[in-house]
């Protein structure tokens, strides 16, 4: 376990009139909390469920790793969450050794969770108009054919939704009862670009780090947004002390954006920007997984049970994908590539099944509804073209089932991760650590993970369907010894660049950055 305070030699306040108190905390700010709530139909009790996405996986890792008090400030994910938020401002949340969350139990890794009671209409504009269809699409460069339409609706949603929700979070964080004096505040992801800039003027005692978990594109990609929006995004982020990304390329794009779009002085050697009389540094910290916790979970009975179910129905070989049903994951092109492979290599028909475990996501965003329809259409078309009485080429399962995903990781032959763009991609790291059968990986060159793993996996360009088809074929045809050797090397890379290293690296930079302030 890492003691955050020990890693911060100079954790004193910046303003001598503000005294640190004993309850100095690490405060995580992320739109998604670790859990969402529903009411049991049987006895009306509240039940908690683990929330989706790589960010939750990563922040759970921080909670497990840090010894001191961790607070997690988040938004409600549903009306049931709003009820809980109103009744109980803080909930204690514990993680067992597997990384699965429970509320109220007494294990050593726990944090206090506060869901802010955000007004529903503002949240809707924030999440369904700005954060997901707009910022997510801009940053994953999903507007390759047609730029977004920024009309009155988007402008209004920017002010009434995105700015408003960022204000609500900044206002809550200003309160020392929520964020103790002298705390380190880690603000996560594209939902809260404005929070650092809003928080800094009133809480100079805080150390603010912002971390973007999705790609940061080159300056030109940002030009699809109106100048006031993109300037507010950059300026908001520059309210931080440290701005974090997953890859060196994303840092570079950010620095160029500060220079090209805002005209700020940038020191590329130091990765620093002069802003408002301060020096803000941009760093890359490649995120990873808690490999020990995952390996423990992989040995759990529920995973063994799912593995037995999979084994009972599996065809000779499995191509696997495990993803949220998100356009950035490039799911449709992945199925097209699989069909292409079956056309070019008919000998594979009947013996290879594409198992797709997809988690539904962002169901109120029209682009996601359309994408889900496109997924069903391509699956129907491929299955209609190739199915036989004994074999269906694509086995699509819409599931939110980590135990099943881990069971499938253990025995896939090929894992397909062909994201159009991805901040890091944790699925590939999870699968490499858990696989027991010499599985091969086909990985997009535009996933952050390819910086670390590109030399030991088969890499592809995400738009090139025939190349992906050939890459899957190559992976399926690789001699077993080669596959096992490559897997062992790749798994070692993930084990040594694990989540603990990701965290230590950041804490060390935070400590160094705070040091000159100690008096
Ligand atoms: P993103 O953060 O964009 O969703 P990542 O690959 O970084 O993508 O992280 C996805 C996380 O969600 C991983 O921890 C993965 O195990 C989990 N996950 C993805 N699909 C499913 C699924 N169908 N069921 C359960 N967990 C899933
Ligand atoms: C990605 C984003 C996270 C987000 C997650 C799930 O991992 O980087 O910020 O939480 O997707 O998406 P959702 O919209 O359900 O929170």
Structure in a nutshell:
The chain has 519 residues and is α/β, with parallel strands linked by helices.
Number of domains: 3
- Total beta-strand segments: 19
Small-molecule binders: adenosine-5'-diphosphate, 6-O-phosphono-alpha-D-glucopyranose
**Helix count, DSSP H or I runs of 4 or more residues:** 18
**What helical percentage do the residues reach?**
40-55%
Most strands sheet:
11 strands, mixed
CATH superfamily of the largest domain: Glycogen Phosphorylase B
Rg on CA atoms, Å: 23 Å
Q: Indicate the CATH class of the largest domain.
A: Alpha Beta
Q: What structural category do the secondary elements indicate?
A: alpha/beta
Q: What portion of residues belong to β-strands? A: 15-25%
What is the topology, as strand order, of the major beta sheet?
Answer: 6-5-7-4-1-8-9-10-13-12-11
Spans with pLDDT under 50 lasting ≥5 residues? 1-22, 97-107
CATH topology of the largest domain: Rossmann fold
From the N-terminal CA to the C-terminal CA, the straight-line distance is 28 Å
Q: What is the mean pLDDT? A: 90
Task: Please provide a written account of the structure.
A hairpin with a 6-residue loop joins strand 2 (35-39) and strand 3. The model is unreliable at 1-22 and 97-107 (pLDDT under 50). The chain contains 18 helices and 19 strands. The chain has an eleven-stranded mixed sheet with strand order 6-5-7-4-1-8-9-10-13-12-11, with helices on both faces. The chain has a six-stranded parallel sheet with strand order 16-15-14-17-18-19, with helices on both faces. The protein is an alpha/beta fold and 519 residues long. It starts with 25 loop residues before the first strand and ends in a 5-residue tail after the last helix. It has three domains: 2-115, no CATH class; 154-288 and 500-518, Rossmann fold; 291-496, Rossmann fold. Helix 11 (331-344) packs parallel to helix 12 (366-386) and helix 11 packs across helix 16 (465-477). The protein is 43% helix and 18% strand. Residues 52-55, 57, 322-324, 357-359, 399-402, 405, 424-427, 430 line the site of adenosine-5'-diphosphate.
């Amino acid at each position: 376990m890492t003691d955050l305070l020990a890693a911060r030699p100079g954790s004193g306040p910046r303003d001598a009139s503000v005294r640190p108190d004993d309850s100095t905390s690490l405060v995580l700010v992320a739109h998604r909390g670790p859990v969402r709530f529903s009411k049991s139909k049987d006895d009306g009790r509240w039940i908690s469920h683990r929330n989706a996405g790589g960010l939750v996986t990563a922040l759970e890792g921080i909670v497990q790793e840090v010894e001191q008090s961790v607070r997690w400030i988040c938004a409600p994910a549903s009306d049931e969450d709003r009820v809980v938020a109103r009744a109980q401002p803080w909930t204690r949340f514990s993680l067992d050794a597997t990384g699965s969350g429970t509320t109220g139990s007494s294990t050593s890794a726990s944090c206090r969770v506060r869901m802010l009671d955000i007004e529903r209409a503002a949240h809707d504009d924030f999440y369904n108009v700005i954060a997901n269809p707009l910022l997510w699409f801009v940053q994953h460069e999903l507007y390759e054919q047609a730029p977004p339409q920024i009309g009155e609706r988007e402008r209004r949603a920017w002010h009434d939704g995105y700015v408003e929700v960022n204000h609500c979070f900044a206002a809550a964080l200003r309160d020392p009862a929520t964020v103790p004096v002298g705390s380190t505040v880690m603000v996560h992801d594209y939902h809260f670009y404005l929070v650092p800039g809003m928080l800094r003027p009133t809480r100079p005692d805080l150390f603010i780090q912002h971390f973007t978990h999705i790609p940061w594109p080159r300056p030109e990609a940002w030009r699809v947004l109106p100048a006031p929006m993109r300037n507010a995004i950059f300026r908001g982020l520059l309210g931080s002390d440290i701005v974090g990304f997953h890859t060196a390329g994303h840092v570079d794009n950010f620095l160029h954006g500060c220079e090209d779009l805002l005209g700020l002085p940038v020191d590329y050697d130091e990765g620093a920007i002069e802003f408002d009389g301060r020096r803000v540094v941009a760093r890359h910290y490649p995120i990873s997984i808690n490999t020990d916790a995952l390996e423990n979970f992989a040995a759990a009975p529920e995973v063994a049970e799912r593995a037995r179910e999979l084994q009972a129905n599996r065809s000779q070989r499995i191509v696997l994908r495990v993803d949220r049903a998100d356009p950035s994951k490039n799911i449709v092109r992945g199925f097209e590539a699989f069909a292409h492979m079956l056309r070019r290599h008919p000998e594979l028909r009947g013996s290879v099944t594409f198992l797709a475990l997809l988690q539904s996501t962002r169901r109120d965003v029209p682009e996601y509804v359309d994408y889900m329809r496109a997924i069903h259409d391509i699956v129907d078309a491929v299955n209609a073209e190739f199915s036989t009485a004994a074999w269906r080429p694509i086995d699509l399962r819409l599931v939110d089932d980590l135990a099943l995903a881990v069971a499938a990781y253990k025995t896939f032959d090929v894992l397909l991760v062909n994201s159009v763009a991805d901040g890091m991609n944790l699925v590939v790291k999870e699968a490499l650590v858990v696989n027991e059968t010499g599985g091969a990986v086909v990985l997009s060159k535009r996933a952050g993970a390819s910086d670390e793993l590109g030399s030991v996996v088969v890499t592809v360009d995400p738009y090139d369907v025939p190349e992906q088809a050939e890459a899957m074929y190559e992976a399926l045809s690789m001699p077993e010894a080669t596959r096992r050797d490559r897997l062992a090397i790749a798994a070692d890379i993930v084990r040594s660049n694990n989540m603990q290293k990701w965290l230590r690296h950041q804490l060390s930079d935070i400590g160094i950055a705070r040091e000159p302030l100690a008096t």
